[in-house]
Amino acid sequence: MFGLTFQEVLVIGIIAIVLFGSKLPEVAKMLGGHYARFRKSLADLQSRVNLHEIYDPRPTSSSYSSSSRKSSSSYSSFDDHDEATAPRFEPPPAAEPPASAPDSADAA
User: Would you list the domain boundaries of the chain?
Assistant: First the structure.
């Protein structure tokens, strides 16, 4: 339970009994009520806000307002994702054969 071992839960229980004593059932009931109200308000908030609609990269017709429906530009025109490009590989030019030694006739 919550990643706690039996010994840790036992120590927490003993501390709760020492702190609250005979009022422990009332305190537990109060904490349970607060937790239930928290869960209810969280569920209400989740029903009002559709998180899938917020995180979905594709637009749906229900997510557009009337002003955005009137615009002629599509969703893809606002896409700022550029395609990755890399420089083209060009092999080095072929090495020229070494110049031959000048002929003895040319040298004279």
Answer: 22-59
Tokens of 12: 């927490």
Is residue 63 within 8 Å of residue 50, measured between CB atoms?
Answer: no
What angle in degrees, to the nearest 10, is found between the helix axes of 24-48 and 6-20?
A: 110
Nearest to 57 by CA among 84, 76, 83: 76
pTM for this one?
Answer: 0.39
CA distance 94 to 74: 50
pLDDT in tens, the chain (108 residues): 578 899 999 999 999 999 989 999 999 999 999 999 999 999 998 888 876 666 666 655 554 444 444 444 555 555 566 676 777 888 888 877 766 666 655 555
If we measure between CA atoms, which residue out of 29, 9, 11, 8 comes closest to residue 19? 11
> Cα–chain-centroid distance for residue 86?
27
